[in-house]
């Protein structure tokens, strides 16, 4: 075994072990964190101990203290090496080795703080501080990756990239230089700055130099420095601190980066707006090879190196257009080259305009191509140089042409709904499905909604990302799917909502900063100027002390300083209420109980800590409320919502609502049809009260790692058709009464790594069509009752891995059984939730 003190002795090969252990047996997450922390701490301490030895040799000091420290480290290394040999077959040994690793860490901590008596030698005192700092960080976090952060953090998947090779190579050249520097990538809106920055992060040369120490943060128009720093801590898998102020946040970030800074670091600050130079300045630290890449519409020349991203030249622009219009040698249609050239020229080299307009013309008849050409030529703003002076306005005109090609009015309306959510945030597709089902009478399972999403993707108006690929995608389960769109396309959606020609305005979007209110929002003790109200937004009528709002959709965004001091309004016509919040304390607006037509409530917290939401009882008077989705909030005690059909909880605390309420859950939601609980890690068991809601058809409890059991009386759910329990890592057994669910057609227990057995009479599920059991590594046998599946007249599909398939091989005489084994992808990002 290589000598520990030679430097780098610990760590080689162990990263692969950890990845394999985490992937193969996800139950070992805690063990993996402890092991990883041990590896990195040993790696960090090895050169320091060598330095201590060198100092001792030079000063002819006794070696007893250093030797004792070496002994502790070697003991620790031996435990780590044995952990190296663990595989999934040794799963039961994980807790024992985790305990050993923790005890050895504690020994070293005690020795460092009590026994090591370093005398008044300056170098040795500095060395002691380093050792203590490493140990303190390890003790506090349990999982600090000190060498490299092992991953590309914050940037979405590698983007499609065409026509920008020259600026890409220039940026690579600058970043490969030694030393610290700030680079500014500037260009017009829609010129591809963010795309280029994301592509850069995936370039082999850049990844080779910076390894995992690549951080990608979107800054946006109203940056919050503390939240940006919190994001960086989150990327490093460290507990997110509560900073006193911006100065405290920067000081703590400096400590973090100096640890990482022994290796090259690349920090990408994307979408920095004019006037934010001071924010960029705060992220500058004196580190040996620390690069900051800023993307912005302005040059920020004070930072030195500037890379100007010019509009695409004609040939690259044509290539980009061909790609997104799907014009290639295999195309069944090919428009006239001159027609293509004219449209491309009209786009003035804007990658975003080329992409969106190409998407809108893809596989369309030539008449639409001609019409698009005429539309673009008719825009006088595009015929002048004003494009380069007022880029946002001009580009909106480009993109408007593509939006006008949407023939389905629902598609246009659905696109405009994208403006209801904050800039640079992922929009859950399940939210869109809930809204559209009620607003546009689309089907509740999402089929028609996904058809609209797919068409908007084809037209390059939006992008769809899946945070985790799972088998149940074919079952219309979209909890892992999100929509993203370019800032300018979001602006287009908002702009289009404001210029709607209908008598009744459909969307009212309000963005509140602190306690500032728009002039037109008349408070209960305020007098408004009626003319200003009418000029601000059409379709509103002003009473003396209330603002009457006729919009069908009301979206209100607030920041972390908002005090929940709501002004009054009368939103009589609102059917959807979208609340986007960031504060730790938040109350529902007092006017909520006046929203008699409200059908959908969506509350999303974009802050770092769960928000305490109050005044939930205001919902009790809303007889039309059918769907509620709450994200990253502490769910308050439930009130009576007799017509609620769907409740969705994502990353919420549920204890108050499920355990502390005086009202029975079945009394609060007697007509609930669908329950979705995702990433709610305080959920230990599903309360028995849910089993009295006999209207339930779908229950999805996913990624709730502390869930250990299901109610024994679940058999009461006589109408239950879908039961999803995937990725509930502590679930050890299922209630035997599950086998009595006569209408159950889909059962998903994927990645329930602690599940030891299935219900004995599971073969009695005569309506079962789909059984998903991939990743059930602790399941060693199937109950003999599965032979009853052979009596089914319909096919039953089982999705599993090789181990699961081997269990089914013992029952070869089930004629309608189909076994599918999907390709396994190593991706642990889902363990940390869905938002970066």
From TrEMBL:
Coiled coil: 66-121
Entry GO MF terms: ADP binding
One GO BP annotation of this record: defense response
Residue ranges of every copy of the RPW8 domain listed in the record: 1-150
Glycosyltransferase keyword on record: no
Keyword RNA-binding: no
InterPro entries: Apaf_helical (IPR042197), LRR_dom_sf (IPR032675), NB-ARC (IPR002182), P-loop_NTPase (IPR027417), Powdery_mildew-R_dom (IPR008808), WH-like_DNA-bd_sf (IPR036388)
Keywords for this protein: Coiled coil, Plant defense, Repeat
Superkingdom of the organism of origin: Eukaryota
Family: Belongs to the disease resistance NB-LRR family.
Official protein name in the record: Disease resistance protein (CC-NBS-LRR class) family protein
Organism: Medicago truncatula (Barrel medic)
Recorded name of the encoding gene: 11407870
């Amino acid at each position: 075994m290589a000598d520990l003190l030679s430097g780098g002795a610990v760590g080689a090969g162990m990263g692969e072990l950890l990845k394999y252990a985490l992937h193969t047996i996800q139950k070992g997450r805690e063990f993996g964190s402890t092991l990883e922390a041990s590896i990195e701490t040993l790696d960090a301490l090895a050169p320091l101990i060598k330095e201590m030895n060198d100092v001792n040799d030079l000063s002819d000091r006794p070696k007893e203290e250093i030797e004792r420290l070496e002994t502790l480290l070697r003991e620790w290394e031996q435990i780590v090496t044995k952990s190296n040999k663990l595989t999934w077959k040794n799963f039961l040994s994980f807790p024992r080795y985790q305990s050993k690793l923790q005890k050895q860490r504690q020994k070293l901590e005690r020795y460092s703080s009590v026994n090591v008596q370093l005398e008044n030698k300056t170098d040795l005192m500095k060395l002691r501080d380093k050792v203590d700092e490493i140990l303190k960080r390890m003790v506090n976090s349990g999982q600090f990756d000190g060498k490299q952060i092992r991953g590309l953090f914050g940037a979405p998947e590698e983007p499609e990239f065409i026509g920008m090779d020259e600026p890409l190579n220039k940026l690579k050249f600058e970043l490969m230089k030694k030393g610290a520097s700030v680079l500014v990538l500037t260009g017009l809106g829609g010129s591809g700055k963010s795309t280029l920055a994301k592509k850069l992060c995936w370039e082999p040369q850049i990844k080779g130099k910076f390894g995992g120490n690549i951080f990608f943060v979107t800054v946006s128009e109203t940056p919050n420095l503390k939240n940006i720093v919190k994001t960086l801590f989150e990327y490093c898998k460290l507990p997110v601190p509560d900073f006193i102020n911006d100065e405290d946040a920067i000081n703590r970030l400096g400590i973090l980066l100096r640890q990482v800074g022994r290796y090259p670091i690349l920090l990408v600050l994307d979408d920095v707006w004019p006037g934010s130079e001071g924010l960029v300045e705060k992220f500058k630290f004196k580190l040996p090879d620390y690069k900051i890449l800023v993307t912005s519409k302005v040059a920020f020349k004070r930072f030195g190196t500037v890379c100007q991203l010019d509009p695409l030249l004609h040939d690259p622009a044509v290539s980009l257009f061909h790609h997104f219009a799907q014009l290639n040698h295999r195309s069944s249609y090919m428009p006239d080259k001159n027609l293509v050239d004219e449209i491309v020229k009209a786009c003035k080299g804007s990658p975003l305009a080329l992409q969106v307009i190409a998407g809108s013309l893809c596989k369309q008849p030539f008449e639409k191509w001609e019409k698009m050409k005429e539309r673009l030529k008719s825009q006088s703003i595009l015929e002048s140089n004003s494009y380069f002076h007022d880029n946002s306005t001009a580009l909106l005109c480009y993109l408007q042409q593509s939006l006008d090609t949407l023939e389905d009015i629902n598609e246009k309306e659905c696109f405009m709904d994208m403006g209801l959510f904050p800039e640079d945030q992922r929009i859950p597709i399940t939210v869109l499905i809930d809204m559209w089902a009620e607003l546009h009478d689309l089907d509740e399972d999402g089929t028609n909604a996904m058809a609209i999403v797919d068409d908007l993707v084809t037209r390059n108006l939006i992008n769809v990302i899946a945070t985790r690929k799972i088998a149940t995608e074919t079952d219309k389960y979209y909890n892992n799917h999100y929509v993203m769109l370019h800032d300018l396309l979001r602006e287009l959606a908002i702009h289009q909502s404001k210029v709607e020609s209908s008598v009744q305005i459909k969307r009212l979007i309000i963005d509140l900063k602190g306690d500032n209110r728009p002039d037109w929002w008349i408070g209960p003790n305020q007098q408004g100027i009626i003319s200003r109200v009418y000029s601000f937004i059409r379709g509103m009528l002003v009473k003396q002390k209330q603002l009457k709002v006729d919009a069908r959709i009301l979206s209100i965004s607030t920041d972390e300083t908002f005090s929940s001091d709501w002004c009054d309004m009368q939103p009589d016509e609102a059917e959807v209420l979208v609340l986007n919040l960031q504060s730790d304390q938040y109350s529902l607006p007092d006017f909520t109980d006046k929203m008699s037509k409200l059908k959908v409530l969506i509350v999303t917290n974009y802050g770092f800590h769960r928000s305490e939401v109050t005044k939930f009882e205001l919902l009790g008077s809303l007889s039309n409320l059918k769907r509620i989705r709450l994200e990253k909030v502490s769910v308050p005690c439930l009130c009576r919502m007799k017509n609620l059909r769907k409740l969705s909880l994502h990353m919420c605390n549920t204890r108050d609502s499920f355990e502390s309420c005086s009202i029975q859950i079945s009394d609060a939601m007697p007509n609930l049809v669908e329950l979705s609980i995702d990433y709610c890690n305080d959920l230990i068991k599903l309360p028995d009260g849910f089993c009295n809601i006999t209207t339930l058809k779908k229950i999805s409890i996913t990624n709730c790692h502390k869930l250990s059991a299901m109610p024994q009386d679940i058999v009461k759910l006589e109408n239950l058709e879908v039961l999803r329990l995937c990725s509930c890592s502590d679930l050890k057994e299922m209630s035997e009464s599950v086998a009595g669910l006569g209408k159950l057609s889909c059962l998903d227990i994927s990645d329930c790594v602690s599940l030891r057995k299935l219900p004995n009479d599971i073969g009695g599920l005569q309506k079962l069509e789909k059984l998903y059991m991939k990743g059930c590594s602790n399941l060693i046998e199937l109950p003999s009752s599965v032979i009853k599946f052979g009596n089914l007249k319909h096919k039953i599909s089982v999705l599993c891995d090789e181990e699961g398939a081997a269990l089914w091989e013992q029952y070869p005489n089930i004629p309608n059984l189909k076994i599918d084994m999907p390709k396994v992808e190593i991706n642990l990002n889902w363990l940390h939730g869905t938002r970066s």
